[in-house]
């Protein structure tokens, strides 16, 4: 199990930003970590950009484990969906907050599906 400081921040970010803002932040996090040419997160792009996410203390092995854990289609990289799912899996609190936000948004009828 990988422990990240980032995941501890996500529930707080989620409460502050609401559902749409949370997804936006997740996408921003993804874009910060991804390989600009390949459009996916690889072990190299993760290593290069990890300092931006406060992950600089993680060893290469831990970063590899993070990718392995999130890589559901086995291509050795994280695409955007894999990354978001991994973030939710790493942070049960986040999932809880997201469900609450979604519920609230549905009640207010403010969910915009694209
Ligand atoms: Ca993958």
TrEMBL record:
Gene3D superfamilies: EF-hand (1.10.238.10)
Pfam families: EF-hand_8
Domain of life: Eukaryota
Residue ranges annotated for the EF-hand domain, each copy included: 58-93
Keywords for this protein: Calcium
Protein name, entry field: Centrin, EF-hand protein
Organism of origin: Datura stramonium (Jimsonweed)
Phylogenetic lineage: Eukaryota, Viridiplantae, Streptophyta, Embryophyta, Tracheophyta
Gene from which this protein is expressed: CETN2_2
């Amino acid at each position: 199990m990988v422990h990240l400081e980032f995941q501890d921040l996500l529930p707080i970010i989620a409460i502050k930003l609401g559902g749409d803002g949370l997804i936006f932040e997740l996408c921003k996090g993804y874009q910060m970590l991804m390989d600009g040419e390949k459009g996916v997160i690889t072990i190299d792009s993760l290593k290069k950009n990890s300092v931006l996410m406060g992950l600089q203390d993680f060893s290469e092995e831990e970063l590899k484990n993070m990718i392995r854990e999130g890589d559901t289609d086995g291509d050795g990289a994280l695409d955007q969906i894999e990354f978001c799912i991994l973030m939710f899996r790493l942070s049960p609190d986040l999932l809880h907050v997201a469900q609450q936000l979604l519920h609230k948004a549905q009640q207010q009828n403010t969910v915009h599906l694209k």
